[in-house]
Amino acid sequence: MLCFTQALLHLASGSAHPLAKGGSSLGLLKQDWRGSQGWCWMVCVEQTGRKTGTDPNMVNAGEMNGSGNLMDFLDEPFPDVGTYEDFHTIDWLREKSRDTDRHRKITNKSKESIWEFIKSLLDAWSGWVVMLLIGLLAGTLAGVIDLAVDWMTDLKEGVCLSAFWYSHEQCCWTSNETTFDDRDKCPQWQKWSELLVNQSEGASAYILNYFLYILWALCFAFLAVSLVRVFAPYACGSGIPEIKTILSGFIIRGYLGKWTLLIKTVTLVLVVSSGLSLGKEGPLVHVACCCGNFFSSLFSKYSKNEGKRREVLSAAAAAGVSVAFGAPIGGVLFSLEEVSYYFPLKTLWRSFFAALVAAFTLRSINPFGNSRLVLFYVEYHTPWYMAELFPFILLGVFGGLWGTLFIRCNIAWCRRRKTTRLGKYPVLEVIVITAITAIIAYPNPYTRRSTSELISELFNDCGALESSQLCDYINDPNMTRPVDDIPDRPAGPGVYTAMWQLALALVFKIVITIFTFGMKIPSGLFIPSMAVGAMAGRMVGIGVEQLAYHHHDWIIFRNWCRPGADCVTPGLYAMVGAAACLGGVTRMTVSLVVIMFELTGGLEYIVPLMAAAVTSKWVADAFGKEGIYEAHIHLNGYPFLDVKDEFTHRTLATDVMRPRRGEAPLSVLTQDSMTVEDVETLIKETDYNGFPVVVSKDSERLIGFAQRRELILAIKNARQRQDGVVSNSIVYFTEDPPELPPNSPHPLKLRRILNLSPFTVTDHTPMETVVDIFRKLGLRQCLVTRSGRLLGIITKKDVLRHMAQMANQDPESIMFN
C-alpha cells in the first residue's frame, strides 16, 4: 500500500495546473482507506463481481448466442459521445486523457508510412495555424471597428461633403484649404446646422445640432439593442465574466457562436458611436474568443476536445487585449492573470504568437492614421521625481475607493434589474439611459466627444503646438526653450474653465457608468474606468503643477523644481489615475502595469504605475476581494471556483457530501444486475449528471462512474444497432457477460462508457483539501468512500454552495452544475 499524502501536498501548493505535466488519467481504479494520515490512495485490482458457480440451469450469454464475445457499442464511436450538455462543467481529467490517447495513436501511426508521418506533422502544426488565423481575423475586425466607430461618432455632429464615409479628421486631411490654427475646420466638413439651415453659429444652429446629436445617439442605441435581442442575446455585456467561466470548464453553447460574433461586432460599433459611457476593449476579448471558437471547430483536435479548445480560447483572449490596447505582451499577461483557468507553457507561447499576429494586422490597417496601435499613444519628455510618489499614491487610493463604489452600486443595480420588472424592458432601459447620456453630455465638450479622444487629450503633454483648453497657459514672450522642454507656466483662463468642466464630467461619468454597464448591449468597462481616473489625475496634475510654480521655494519643491524648469507633467498624472481606477475596478496588477507601459512607451514611468496599481488594489481589497468580473459571475450564479479564494474553515467531506441524513439514498447502478428498463427509469426519475457503479446495492463496493448523457446515448444507439436489446436486457459493466438463464434477452455491455478511475476521497478528508483538489484538477465530482464502500458524492456545485454558506452568503445563488 502506497500513500501519496506528500504528493498531494505538493500538488496543493503548486501554481501550475497539474494536467500540464501530462498523463493520460489518474491510472487504475483508486480506492481510499482510513488511516492516521487522513486519506491515501492505493492501486487495487478491479473486481468484476462475476459469479463462478456451475449451476446447470445457467449458461453463458456468449455461448447462448453462438459467439464468444458481445458487441460493445462504443468500440465504434457514435455521434455526441464524450460531449457535454449545455450549462454543465467539463471533466478536465477525461479531456486530458482523451487527448493523450489521441496523441499516442497519432505517434504510433506516424511510424507506419510517410503519409501518416505527414499527417502527424500537420496535427502538430494545427495549433500554430489556428493562432495565425485568430490573430489575422481579430486584428482585422478590430481595425474595421475602430474605423467605423471614428466615422459614426463624427456622424452625430456633421458629414463630409467630399466623401460621406470620411470622419471629421480624415475629411480635413484631404482638404487643401485647412490652416494650422483652424485644423478642425474645413469647407468639406459641415455640421448638420450648416447643411440643413445654412447656419453655423447662433441659438437655432446650436439647438438643431443638439437635437440631431440626441437623435443619432438614440437611433444607434435602439438598433444595437434590437439586433442583440432578436438575433444574439449572448452578444450583450462585456463578455469577460462569461469567458472566465467558460475557460474554467463551463459549457455555454452559442456564447461563442458565429451569430454572436457577427452581431457583437456590428452592435459594438453602434453602442460606442452612440456616446454611451462604455468601451469596446472588453467586448473585443469576447469577439476574439468567438474567432478562436470558430477556427477551433475546423480542426478535430480542438472541436472534439473541450480541454484543448479552452487552450485556444485563452490565446484568443490575449489577442483580443492585444488589439484593444495595442499591447501584445499585456494581452498575454491579462489572459494569464485575469481570465485563464488552465494556462500551460505551450499556451503561453501560442498566446504570444496570436497577440503578435493580431497587433501586426492592426498596425497594417493603421486605423488611427498615426502609425500607432491605439489612439492615446503619448510620449513624455520629463522624468518623474520621488516627491511625486505621494500624489501618485493618493490617486491609487482614489482608484481603490472608486472601484469599490462602482462594484457595489453596479451590482446592486444589476440585481435590481434581475429581480424586478425593470429586467423585462431592456429596450426601454437602453433608450432612457442613452437619452439621459446624450442630453447631459452634449453641453460639455469633455463628455460630448468619444471617450477614447477624451483620454487621448488628458494623456497629452502640453507642447507649443497644442490648442486644447488644458494647454491654455500664460506664455513668457522671452522664452527661447526648445519645443519639447517648455517650463512650467501659470494657468490661463482656459485651464480654469477646463478644470470645472472636467469636474462636472467626472461626476457625470462616475454616475452614468454605474447604470450603463450591464445593459443588454455590448458594454466594456476599461475605457470608462480609465476616463474617470484620467480626469481625476489630470486635475491633480494641474494642481501640483501650479503649486510647484507658485511655491517653488517650498522644501518639497526646492531640490527638483527650480524656477523656469519643466517639473510636473499633468498628462503623467492622468495616466497614473487611469491605471489606478482600472485596477480598482478589475483588481489587475501586473498585466495592468504592462498594458499602461505599452500605451506610453516609457520605461521610466513603471514605478509610478506600480505604486498606483498596488495601492488601488490594497484599498479596494480592504472593502471586498471581488473584482467587477467575479462579482458579475456570482450575480449570475455561474459555477466558477476562483483559484484566488481561500478556504480556511474546518469542515470535512462528510459535512458536504450527498445524501445527507434524512435524504433518500444515493442513486447508483449495479455492475451486472439492472435491466435496460431499470436504468432508463433511474435516468427519467432523477436529474443527476452521472451515477456511481457498484458491485451490488448490498456491498456498495465502488467499481466506477457512468455519465448520464453517455448512458442515454449508448442505450439509444444500442436499440437502433443491435438486435435483441429490449427493456428486459441486462446491462453490465464488467469485461465478461454475467451468467443468465436460458432464453434471456440479449444483454447490453456498456463497459466502455464506464470511468474506471473516478476520483475518491474519504469521509474524513478536510474540505480545505477537497476544495484544492477541485481547483487544481478541475473536477466535476468526486466520490466519498469509507474502506472502499461508497458513502456519497460531492459535486462542484456542492463545493461552491458550501463555500457560499461558510461566507454567510446565499448558497442557492449557485444555479448551474
TrEMBL record:
<feature type="transmembrane region" description="Helical">
    <location>
        <begin position="252"/>
        <end position="272"/>
    </location>
</feature>
<dbReference type="GO" id="GO:0005886">
    <property type="term" value="C:plasma membrane"/>
</dbReference>
<feature type="transmembrane region" description="Helical">
    <location>
        <begin position="525"/>
        <end position="544"/>
    </location>
</feature>
<dbReference type="InterPro" id="IPR002246">
    <property type="entry name" value="Cl_channel-4"/>
</dbReference>
<keyword id="KW-0732">Signal</keyword>
<feature type="transmembrane region" description="Helical">
    <location>
        <begin position="572"/>
        <end position="597"/>
    </location>
</feature>
<dbReference type="InterPro" id="IPR001807">
    <property type="entry name" value="ClC"/>
</dbReference>
<dbReference type="GO" id="GO:0005789">
    <property type="term" value="C:endoplasmic reticulum membrane"/>
</dbReference>
<feature type="transmembrane region" description="Helical">
    <location>
        <begin position="210"/>
        <end position="232"/>
    </location>
</feature>
<dbReference type="GO" id="GO:0005524">
    <property type="term" value="F:ATP binding"/>
</dbReference>
<dbReference type="GO" id="GO:0005769">
    <property type="term" value="C:early endosome"/>
</dbReference>
<dbReference type="Pfam" id="PF00654">
    <property type="entry name" value="Voltage_CLC"/>
</dbReference>
<keyword id="KW-0547">Nucleotide-binding</keyword>
<keyword id="KW-0406">Ion transport</keyword>
<dbReference type="InterPro" id="IPR046342">
    <property type="entry name" value="CBS_dom_sf"/>
</dbReference>
<comment type="similarity">
    <text>Belongs to the chloride channel (TC 2.A.49) family.</text>
</comment>
<dbReference type="GO" id="GO:0015297">
    <property type="term" value="F:antiporter activity"/>
</dbReference>
<keyword id="KW-0812">Transmembrane</keyword>
<keyword id="KW-0050">Antiport</keyword>
<keyword id="KW-1133">Transmembrane helix</keyword>
<feature type="domain" description="CBS">
    <location>
        <begin position="754"/>
        <end position="812"/>
    </location>
</feature>
<keyword id="KW-0967">Endosome</keyword>
<feature type="transmembrane region" description="Helical">
    <location>
        <begin position="425"/>
        <end position="442"/>
    </location>
</feature>
<keyword id="KW-0472">Membrane</keyword>
<feature type="domain" description="CBS">
    <location>
        <begin position="657"/>
        <end position="721"/>
    </location>
</feature>
<dbReference type="GO" id="GO:0055037">
    <property type="term" value="C:recycling endosome"/>
</dbReference>
<keyword id="KW-0067">ATP-binding</keyword>
<keyword id="KW-0677">Repeat</keyword>
<feature type="transmembrane region" description="Helical">
    <location>
        <begin position="125"/>
        <end position="149"/>
    </location>
</feature>
<feature type="transmembrane region" description="Helical">
    <location>
        <begin position="312"/>
        <end position="336"/>
    </location>
</feature>
<feature type="transmembrane region" description="Helical">
    <location>
        <begin position="498"/>
        <end position="518"/>
    </location>
</feature>
<feature type="signal peptide">
    <location>
        <begin position="1"/>
        <end position="16"/>
    </location>
</feature>
<dbReference type="GO" id="GO:0005794">
    <property type="term" value="C:Golgi apparatus"/>
</dbReference>
<keyword id="KW-0129">CBS domain</keyword>
<dbReference type="GO" id="GO:0005247">
    <property type="term" value="F:voltage-gated chloride channel activity"/>
</dbReference>
<dbReference type="InterPro" id="IPR014743">
    <property type="entry name" value="Cl-channel_core"/>
</dbReference>
<keyword id="KW-0813">Transport</keyword>
<dbReference type="GO" id="GO:0005765">
    <property type="term" value="C:lysosomal membrane"/>
</dbReference>
<dbReference type="Pfam" id="PF00571">
    <property type="entry name" value="CBS"/>
</dbReference>
<dbReference type="GO" id="GO:0008021">
    <property type="term" value="C:synaptic vesicle"/>
</dbReference>
<feature type="transmembrane region" description="Helical">
    <location>
        <begin position="284"/>
        <end position="300"/>
    </location>
</feature>
<feature type="transmembrane region" description="Helical">
    <location>
        <begin position="389"/>
        <end position="413"/>
    </location>
</feature>
